[in-house]
Design a protein that fits this description.
By secondary structure, this protein is largely without helices or strands. It contains 1 helix and no strands.
Length: 79
Amino acid sequence: MGFGTLDNSPFRNLFVVKDARSRRVSSWDKTGANRDWCSIGPHKTAVLLEVNGSGCITHFYWTMIGNDPFDLRKAVLRM
């Protein structure tokens, strides 16, 4: 189903901000050190962010350091 232009799309106002505020959450180590990580063992979980209300995540960055070449395939990110 084509809408021709974005003006005719039913989704044209999906990301229009109305009465909202912007927030940034980071693991930045405010002491100046570089200890802004958490280690999560096999079959364990960790809460990285917990906020109330709706929102839109526009940026997410993570790295994994491990010896198994399939670590990224085995990882699960739940939202």
